[in-house]
């Protein structure tokens, strides 16, 4: 278990297209995760709650980015506890295509295999085989290679 910090800022007067840039700046700064939640503020104004998950030492840096790149004038933050799976990025080769996948374990048990979207998308475009088929094949091959003894 680890302690992380969640930061929140309600933003109701900024072009929503700019959020992608804000997300990228925060992720590039090293935060664990960034997301937006649609909310309704006073007087019925539609807004976004910008949420950031980070280590304590990144709170000030993340706040600086939020103030610099958004119209927010305040940020809330609070500690939270998290249990995270162990993770590893592995590769599999299928029909000559090298594809990445993320494997996750909890208490030594494989709990999830996620095919890397960009790799599967590129393989689908190149071969004409549907994206979902590449995703299935990657998970299946990764389980064969890494699922039993990892």
Considering the chains and any ligands shown, give keywords for the structure.
150 residues, alpha+beta, Alpha-Beta Plaits, Ubiquitin-like (UB roll), 2 domains, four-stranded antiparallel beta sheet, three-stranded antiparallel beta sheet, 33% helix, 40% strand
Task: Describe the fold and architecture.
With 150 residues, the chain is α+β, with helices and mostly antiparallel strands. It has helices at residues 19-28, 59-69, 117-127, 131-147, and strands spanning 2-11, 33-40, 46-54, 76-82, 86-94, 97-106, 109-115. It folds into 2 domains: 2-82, Transcriptional regulatory protein pf0864 domain like (Alpha-Beta Plaits), CATH 3.30.70.1380; 86-147, mk0293 like domain (Ubiquitin-like (UB roll), Roll). It contains 4 helices and 7 strands; from the N terminus they run βαββαββββαα. The strands form 2 sheets. It has a 4-stranded antiparallel beta sheet with strand order 2-3-1-4, covered by helices on one side. A hairpin with a 2-residue loop joins β5 (86-94) and β6 (97-106). The longest helix is centred in the last third of the chain and has 17 residues, at 131-147. The chain starts with a strand and ends with a helix. This is DUF111 family protein. InterPro entries: Ni_insertion (IPR002822).
Give the integer mean of the pLDDT values: 94
Total helical segments: 4
Radius of gyration: 20 Å
- Give the CATH architecture of the largest domain: 2-Layer Sandwich
* Dominant shape: globular
CATH fold topology of the largest domain: Alpha-Beta Plaits
Q: How many structural units, i.e. domains?
A: 2
CATH superfamily membership of the largest domain, which one? Transcriptional regulatory protein pf0864 domain like
SSE ordering: EHEEHEEEEHH
- Class computed from helices, strands and strand pairing: alpha+beta
How is the biggest beta sheet arranged? 4 strands, antiparallel
CATH class (first level) name of the largest domain:
Alpha Beta
Low-confidence stretches: none
Organism: Megasphaera hominis
Keywords: Nickel
Protein name: DUF111 family protein
InterPro entries: Ni_insertion
């Amino acid at each position: 278990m680890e302690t992380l910090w969640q930061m929140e800022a309600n933003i109701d007067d900024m072009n929503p297209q700019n959020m992608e840039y804000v997300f990228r700046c925060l992720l590039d700064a090293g935060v664990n995760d960034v997301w937006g939640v649609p909310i309704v503020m006073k007087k019925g104004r539609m807004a976004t709650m910008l949420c950031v998950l980070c280590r304590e030492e990144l709170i000030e840096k993340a706040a600086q980015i939020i103030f610099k790149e958004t119209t927010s004038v305040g940020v809330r933050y609070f500690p939270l506890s998290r249990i995270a799976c162990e993770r590893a990025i592995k590769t599999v080769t299928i029909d000559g295509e090298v594809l990445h996948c993320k494997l996750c374990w909890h208490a030594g048990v494989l709990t999830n295999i996620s095919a890397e979207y960009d790799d599967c998308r590129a393989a689908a475009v190149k071969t004409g085989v549907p994206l979902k088929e590449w995703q299935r094949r990657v998970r299946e091959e990764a389980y064969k290679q890494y699922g039993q003894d990892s």
